[in-house]
Design goal:
By secondary structure, this protein is of the alpha/beta class. The N and C termini lie far apart (84 Å).
Length: 378
Amino acid sequence: MTGPLEAERHARLVLSRVIEPGTVKVHRLVSDVGPVALRDHLANDRHLGEPTEVAARIAEVDPVRTLEQARRLGIRYVVPGDDEWPASVERLDAADPLHDIGGSPLGLWVRGPVRLDELVDSVAVVGSRSATSYGMATAQELAGGIAQDGRIVVSGAAFGIDYAAHRGALAAGGRTVAVLACGADRPYPTAHRELISYIAEHGAVVSEMPPGYAPMRNRFLSRNRVIAALSAGTVVVEAAARSGALNTAGWAGRLMKPLMAMPGPINSGTSRGAHDLIRSGAAVLATCVEDVLEQLSAVGEAYSPVLRGPEAVRDRLNRDQARILEAVPVHRPASADAIARTASLGSTVAKDALAELRELGLVVEDDRGWRLGDRARA
């Protein structure tokens, strides 16, 4: 005899088999009446005495058998109420729909050892499928840095930036999660079969779609909202003006989660969408992993370094030393008094400063006076 949670799991599974993910009306009904009541209502629906098409399809679904088949494939079905259920995806219920898609998933199919509740500090790295060599290298380096910080990298296993992000995290010895627009048992794209299989062994492959389901255009849009919802924040590395990564970015904004974008060359079409996110203020400019971690960390926990060139010996001089050094001739020596007058400082201050500058190798003294040393000229 199944308990309430298993009854809900079965009902959610059945609904996921007959309704496209992200169908706003259905998710609202699930919130209002519950998955069991909605499943039963649809299963008993009749038209002219005959079961409706949806009712007929529901009758064909055996949730117990489906779960057992998934278990044999190493796939588990996680639903609200499970310890593993990621609370972050429930923020989708309060977000405005995008392209008529919205609401939290009915459940998530997971293949791999990483648990969904471990993604609380994860980072989504997304971008163009037609990525440039610059974008691929940038995504890989960024993902590697995120992984080294102990965070899980989330992406969609697609060509381009997604692929580089997964590879970067794995190369750094970290963990990564691939969210697919098809069943968790189907490697897509097929060219990434080896990568997806490896992620399933060491990270996790996640899908809103039941096992066996094929990828479709609308399912990629549904998938994007799951990527944004599972992650603590999203980074767009490269994105053209109509890139699908901008859809993921839109969901991050709707969920009020940190959104960052990395700049590319100003004349690069593959970075136009990312640049527009920055220009419009939708995304924060990020140029390195430290910028990303600063946005995702609690106040005071992480800082992006202040950019400056290599420290020179002149940077360590006090104000009087710096003024005196500026007044010392390059070639023709001058007396300490002449240098003091040029620097508008007293003779005693000038003599003390010159002695200190000599110790640093910045000035030299001979019988004719003081001049710049080789170190200062360099």
